Amino acid sequence: MDSIFHEKQEGSLCAQHCLNNLLQGEYFTPVDLSSIAHQLDEEERMRMAEGGMASEEYRTFLQQPSGNMDDSGFFSIQVISNALRVWGLELILFNSREYQSLMINPINEKAFICNYKEHWFTIRKLGQQWFNLNSLLTGPELISDTYLALFLAQLQQEGYSIFVIRGNLPECEAEQILGIMRVQQQQRPRLIGEEEAQTSSGSRSVALGQSEMAFGVEDEVVDEDEELKRALALSRQDIDVEDEEADLRRAIQLSMQGAVMSNKSSECGVGNVKSGSQAAGSAAREQREGQNETLTAEELRKRRQAYFDRQQQQTQTNIPQPKDTQPTGSSGSVNAGSEGDQQPKPSQ
């Protein structure tokens, strides 16, 4: 397998890789294929000029980009066909009526060129075995004789255009070696993107492992810093609590001192209040007594008037009445009246 020449994909130069893998050597460069493309463009321009350089079709042709190549590195089938003519090789469309009428078994051919959109690759027979020399693969892929026809049919179903190579291919080292021995492929090659993805994932896993180790050390340092910060915060909280307790004790002491002072002042105030209240009470009592006396004198006056009225009625009826005899329930009134008679009448 190491003797097989296999160019891997670079940019969009799949046409160059296809030709070199077919010829088994570095026969063409992008410059060579560009020269062929420019030659084809000039031939097409000369054919269009035959219809008149002042024609609308000719001016439109000059304004259009080249159909044989582009800046990405793509080359048309005409470029590939002209490049193979240098080596006396010819391209025949695989599904054309001309070729299908020959009823040729694909395993009896020498090589195929396949194209889908802008990608080209080669399938070639080296010795007695077939190999897929796609530049997108990491290496040549062995194809069995029974699988070749199925592989070509699958490519056609996927939209590939297949061309048969007719003519004598140049001799190569792989042809000589594989002509005397057969190879066995233990593992099929992968697409370049898949290998790069696997390699990058492996490198990423290694890098992640190393970064995790580094992060582990950093985490330990960060944990220590966080523990120290928490301890400092707790100590600050303790200090704040102690300060709050000290402030609370001082406030209690001050409030107790204020209470003592207020008690003393309240005692003085209470004495004053008591003396004031006593004076007010005595004045109130005197007022009530004066009112009682005033009410009692008024009542006595009324009762005396009633007594005199009764005496006058008894005198008129000539009914003698003893002086000490008094009506029931009026002893207190008489006594009070006698006492009232001894007292001077209140001024009216």
TrEMBL record:
<dbReference type="GO" id="GO:0005634">
    <property type="term" value="C:nucleus"/>
</dbReference>
<dbReference type="InterPro" id="IPR006155">
    <property type="entry name" value="Josephin"/>
</dbReference>
<dbReference type="GO" id="GO:0004843">
    <property type="term" value="F:cysteine-type deubiquitinase activity"/>
</dbReference>
<keyword id="KW-0378">Hydrolase</keyword>
<feature type="active site" description="Nucleophile">
    <location>
        <position position="14"/>
    </location>
</feature>
<dbReference type="GO" id="GO:0006508">
    <property type="term" value="P:proteolysis"/>
</dbReference>
<dbReference type="Pfam" id="PF02809">
    <property type="entry name" value="UIM"/>
</dbReference>
<keyword id="KW-0804">Transcription</keyword>
<keyword id="KW-0788">Thiol protease</keyword>
<keyword id="KW-0539">Nucleus</keyword>
<dbReference type="GO" id="GO:0016579">
    <property type="term" value="P:protein deubiquitination"/>
</dbReference>
<feature type="active site">
    <location>
        <position position="134"/>
    </location>
</feature>
<keyword id="KW-0645">Protease</keyword>
<dbReference type="InterPro" id="IPR003903">
    <property type="entry name" value="UIM_dom"/>
</dbReference>
<dbReference type="Pfam" id="PF16619">
    <property type="entry name" value="SUIM_assoc"/>
</dbReference>
<dbReference type="Pfam" id="PF02099">
    <property type="entry name" value="Josephin"/>
</dbReference>
<feature type="active site">
    <location>
        <position position="119"/>
    </location>
</feature>
<feature type="region of interest" description="Disordered">
    <location>
        <begin position="261"/>
        <end position="348"/>
    </location>
</feature>
<feature type="active site">
    <location>
        <position position="14"/>
    </location>
</feature>
<protein>
    <recommendedName>
        <fullName>ubiquitinyl hydrolase 1</fullName>
        <ecNumber>3.4.19.12</ecNumber>
    </recommendedName>
</protein>
<feature type="domain" description="Josephin">
    <location>
        <begin position="1"/>
        <end position="180"/>
    </location>
</feature>
<keyword id="KW-0833">Ubl conjugation pathway</keyword>
<feature type="compositionally biased region" description="Polar residues">
    <location>
        <begin position="318"/>
        <end position="348"/>
    </location>
</feature>
<dbReference type="GO" id="GO:0042461">
    <property type="term" value="P:photoreceptor cell development"/>
</dbReference>
<keyword id="KW-0677">Repeat</keyword>
<keyword id="KW-0805">Transcription regulation</keyword>
<dbReference type="InterPro" id="IPR033865">
    <property type="entry name" value="Ataxin-3"/>
</dbReference>
<feature type="active site" description="Proton acceptor">
    <location>
        <position position="119"/>
    </location>
</feature>
